[in-house]
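4.2 Preliminary Data

To establish feasibility before requesting continued support, the project team ran the inverse folding procedure on a target of 425 residues. The structure was first converted into the token representation described in Section 3, and no sequence information of any kind was made available to the design step. The complete token record follows.
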């Protein structure tokens, strides 16, 4: 057993884990800090994996969140290639895959997620087709890049952000791309029809064969590789490579066994505390109650991972500061920067400000008079205004016309009186 006094052990060396380690040191954690992760790389940024890194305009060095010397000077012990397999809460230690036990005073779980696997007739769980790839890690991105050549036929399954970004990057590399989406439109889970229609038309104009409402019937393999994908309507798509972007599953195996996770993920409060006073958690692996939206949510975004990590560090250092960050996210495709703030689920009205044809517009999602969320395409100024406004609930009097661009957005949103919220945090 490795034992150290007042040791903070952080499992998962991604966005949340790296930030938590550095932030805990900055906020006054005096004892040892160990950051361990199963990947073999210094903690790195994931967003470029489907964007600049995949398209070849960013290299591996540029992905690192911090240099080795930054961890050294903050006296953070990095242990890479180390996988936690078990948590013993009573004895306060974790077990690694190689059998090592590491004692903790406080434990932070920042284990993120892994890609949801494609389930389809023709896929044998024991013989994974060599050209069926997923994208979560740097290794995944390197594998996709090494398969992508000019003229090669890529089939992307899933029209969410990752699928669309992979399609855009592959087109930039000269690949032929078909994108298959089961829902009637791309981005169906996260955006309204106007955004979906816009992004479908942009991808089609760039040369992506976008198919929506598609059900897969069978994956045909030859010599261990997918040769073609057959759909329920009888149409088939030849493939040199298939990338499935079907969302993620939470990495919570050990936390579940230790009684810290529900079906949705590890439950934390606004201080990133779990139900065990010695264990905090942050990032994609968590769920929390949102007072703003009055429901339990799981956010898969860098800003949330960083906010929760900082809140966890503050709490661990005896300086509790609740995290009430508003959800936000971004996606880069072609020349388009999409920035989203708030959660649009449950909206009953969508108002566009600016014309989609201009490739610079906002979509406002409202439920009655309440503004729930804003998507901004190539409008960073409006996004910043919306992000500031949505930090609190916003109601808009019916006479306000969000589409009227004769008034600056900051003036329009400034008039909105706040709504009372009944959240319990
Ligand atoms: C391709 C792609 C593009 C994205 N683009 C954007 C974007 O544009 N904007 C945005 O906001 N977000 C984006 N995201 C989401 C964003 O990357 C995540 O929200 C963020 O990485 C979450 O950070 P995390 O630290 O919670 O988890 P992760 O970054 O997943 O890190 C978790 C780490 O824990 C390790 N781990 C897991 N289990 C164990 C274990 N048992 N023992 C040891 N180590 C373990 C994992 O190997 C991993 O390294 C993107 C994600 C992907 C995959």
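Position-by-position output of the design step:
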């Amino acid at each position: 057993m490795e034992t150290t006094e007042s040791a903070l052990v952080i499992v998962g060396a991604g966005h949340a884990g790296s930030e938590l380690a550095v932030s805990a040191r900055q906020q006054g954690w005096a004892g040892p800090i160990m950051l361990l992760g199963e990947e073999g790389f210094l903690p790195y940024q994931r967003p470029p994996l489907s964007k600049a890194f995949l398209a070849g305009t960013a290299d591996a060095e540029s992905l690192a969140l911090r240099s080795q010397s930054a961890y050294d000077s903050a006296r953070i012990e990095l242990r890479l290639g180390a996988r936690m397999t078990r948590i013993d809460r009573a004895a306060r230690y974790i077990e690694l895959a190689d059998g090592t036990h590491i004692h903790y005073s406080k434990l932070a779980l920042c284990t993120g997620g892994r890609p949801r696997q494609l389930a389809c007739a023709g896929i044998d769980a024991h013989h994974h087709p060599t050209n069926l790839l997923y994208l979560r890690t740097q290794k995944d991105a390197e594998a996709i890049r090494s398969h992508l050549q000019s003229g090669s036929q890529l089939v992307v399954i899933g029209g969410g952000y990752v699928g669309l970004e992979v399609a855009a990057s592959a087109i930039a590399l000269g690949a032929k791309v078909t994108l298959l989406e089961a829902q009637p439109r791309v981005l169906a889970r996260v955006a309204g029809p106007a955004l979906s229609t816009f992004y479908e038309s942009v991808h089609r104009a760039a040369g992506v064969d976008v198919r929506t409402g598609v059900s897969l019937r069978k994956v045909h393999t030859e010599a261990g590789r997918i040769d073609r994908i057959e759909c329920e309507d009888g149409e088939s798509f030849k493939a040199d490579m298939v990338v499935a972007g079907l969302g993620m599953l939470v990495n919570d195996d050990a936390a579940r066994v230790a009684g810290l996770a529900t079906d949705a993920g590890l439950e934390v409060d606004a201080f990133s505390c779990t139900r065990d006073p010695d264990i905090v958690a942050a990032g994609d692996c968590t769920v929390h109650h949102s007072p703003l939206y009055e429901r339990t949510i799981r956010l898969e975004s860098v800003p949330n991972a960083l906010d929760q990590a900082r809140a966890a560090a503050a709490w661990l250092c005896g300086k509790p500061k609740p995290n009430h960050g508003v959800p936000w996210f971004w996606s880069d495709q072609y020349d388009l920067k999409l920035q989203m703030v708030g959660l649009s689920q449950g909206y009953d009205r969508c108002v566009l400000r600016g014309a989609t044809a201009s490739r610079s517009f906002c979509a406002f999602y409202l439920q009655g008079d309440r503004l729930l969320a804003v998507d901004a395409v190539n409008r960073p100024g409006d996004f910043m205004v919306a992000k500031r406004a949505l930090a609190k609930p916003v109601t808009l009097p019916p006479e306000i016309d969000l589409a009227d661009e004769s008034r600056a957005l900051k003036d329009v949103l400034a008039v909105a009186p706040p709504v009372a919220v009944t959240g319990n945090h």
